[in-house]
Design goal:
Blueprint (H helix, E strand, L loop, with lengths): L5 E6 L1 H10 L5 E5 L6 E8 L8 H4 L3 H7 L15 E3 L2 E3 L35 H4 L14 H24 L5 H28 L26 H6 L9 E4 L2 E4 L8 H6 L1 H10 L1 E3 L11 H13 L5 H7 L15 H11 L7 H7 L11
Antiparallel strand pairs: 1-8, 2-3, 4-5, 6-7
Length: 368
């Protein structure tokens, strides 16, 4: 196929962080059971708690959280998450035993059934891949080594901070140390999301800060609700390149799915450096890696099953004129022709396709 267009602004650290962030609250209801081989999905529902709360690390339910914690009153373990040291580095515990076919009993019931959400796509893994899967809070947190990289970073920071909080608050029990540490990590994560990640996307001179005080008593403040449209617009698959360089070697991106082996061998620092050295590809139509095209098809199917309105209807809802011709959607003549061949008239253009057909825009703001 054609060479992917490179992103002029971002490295692969950006889509890695985007995936880690969104997998915490954009969670289409899908499940698979490694033991029975059963799979199910309902693309009209989700399992989201609609909050940015680090559930890929901590879990969605109290039972899951407690499974992942040391639950120990020992001074060196109070408030910490379970982990192990491999070649001098701290990692989450493994989800499977060394055989790659049975689950780690620390995370199962008496009958050997796993109590954590099983990783999506586990049916497509082999024994070698399963041996590297981490026992963590999210079913998407093992999706790729660059996602596991970020989850591991926050696990290490949680345990480092818990050690400090425990040492200066000797009378606090395990629960209190854990709660205080989790609160700190969550705020830290939100600050990174707002002040680094969102400001990186932001095309205006206005820099956002993570200060919620303005919203506490505001009439417009209300609970978050993750909509189907938001889930679709955040599918930034075209940012991910066909291949990536890990430790000096070019690796097919398809082989990285559910495979933490390259991460463990490279180490966390090396992995961070590698992701920051790889250029991301450009967001937009016709730029998705071949191994992710199937996922794009599922996004289209999800939009249809949720009866998402036409692209021009969303334009109107946001105060814009409805597109009348294909040139109103994109100036790219080639894309116009392809869209016309697929949809016929512009009023039939789907929301998901229309979003990514548009060119990137830069908002110009003058000082006043």
């Amino acid at each position: 196929g054609e060479q992917q267009r490179l992103c002029p602004k971002s490295t692969c650290l950006f889509p890695a962080f985007a995936q880690y962030l969104t997998d915490g609250f954009i969670r289409t209801m899908m499940a698979n059971d490694f033991l029975s081989g059963a799979k199910s999905e309902d693309r009209t529902r989700n399992t989201s708690n609609h909050e940015i709360d680090q559930c890929p690390l901590y879990g969605r339910t109290r039972e899951q959280v407690e499974l992942l914690r040391t639950m120990s009153e020992h001074p060196d373990e109070r408030g910490k998450l379970k982990s192990e040291v491999i070649d001098g580095e701290e990692w989450p515990l493994k989800l499977f035993n060394a055989d790659g076919n049975t689950f780690n009993p620390e995370f199962t019931d008496a009958k050997g059934k796993p109590l954590l959400d099983q990783p999506l796509g586990i049916m497509k893994t082999n024994e070698e891949m399963r041996r590297t899967l981490f026992a963590v809070g999210g079913d998407r947190a093992n999706a790729a080594p660059q996602v596991s990289m970020l989850n591991t970073l926050f696990l290490r920071e949680h345990n480092r901070l818990a050690g400090i909080i425990s040492s200066v608050n000797g009378s606090w029990n395990d629960q209190r140390v854990f709660d205080a540490t989790r609160a700190c990590i969550t705020v830290m994560f939100i600050k990174i999301v707002v002040e680094e990640y969102i400001n990186h996307i932001n095309s205006t001179p206005l820099k956002l800060i993570a200060d919620p005080s303005a919203a506490w008593k505001a009439k417009w403040n209300k609970p978050i609700w993750i909509t189907a449209e938001f889930s679709l617009l955040y599918r930034w698959h075209s940012l991910v390149p066909e291949t990536m360089v890990w430790d000096g070697k070019v690796i097919d991106g398809a082989t990285l799915r559910l495979n933490n082996d390259v991460l463990i061998k490279r180490g966390l620092t090396g992995a961070m450096a590698d992701m920051s050295a790889n250029r991301a590809t450009e967001l937009g139509l016709g730029n998705t890696a071949s191994w992710l095209v199937e996922i794009e098809g599922k996004a289209i199917a999800q939009a249809r099953s949720n009866r998402i309105a036409r692209f021009i209807d969303y334009q109107h809802s946001f105060g814009h004129d409805r597109a009348q011709t294909w040139s109103d959607v994109t100036p790219d003549a080639g894309v116009q022709a392809e869209l016309k061949s697929l949809y016929g008239t512009v009023d039939q253009l789907e929301f998901y396709t229309g979003l990514f057909a548009q060119p990137r825009t830069t908002i110009q703001c003058s000082a006043r």
